[in-house]
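This section describes the prediction task in plain terms. A model, or a person checking by hand, is given the sequence of a single protein chain and must write out its three-dimensional structure as a string of tokens. No templates, partner chains or ligands are provided. The sample shown here is typical of the held-out split.
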Amino acid sequence: MRTLLLALLVFAATPAAAAPDNAKRFERAVAAYEVGRFKAARAEFQTLADQGSAIAETMLGTMYAEGRGVKADPATAAAYFYRAANRGYAPAQLALADAYAKGRGTWPDLPGAYMWARLAQVRGFGATAAAGGATAAALARRIDEDQRLRADRWVRNWRPWTTAAR
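The expected answer:
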């Protein structure tokens, strides 16, 4: 899961979303992360996250979820996933669905997990969309039809936060 998430993050990263300096900062952060220099990676990702980068927020969430360079803190991980998910970043939506489904860092919420998985399916591409669809299908069997219909309606009407939203 960790390798897949990192691959999805790097694949989905677009320098157009940031100034040239931020693109270089992102490259440095990913390079540091890949060689295990987590403190350096965290500092770079934090700077980008403070500027509203959903990719950086997702990476910070991953670091807190796995205890890489920081003390493992599922609640902080879920908070970062929530911020990035609300910005429309499908890998974060999938990670948040997992957190809600398992009650990691947040309360267990199967309808909420289904909703975030469906958003990852609808808004994601490739492996992210496929994983979102598989997760949503598994969760659909665990919630009642009314909960599923309400979540599907919410997905249809959902709009991402602006970059400046916190």
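For orientation: DSSP finds nine helices and no strands in the chain.
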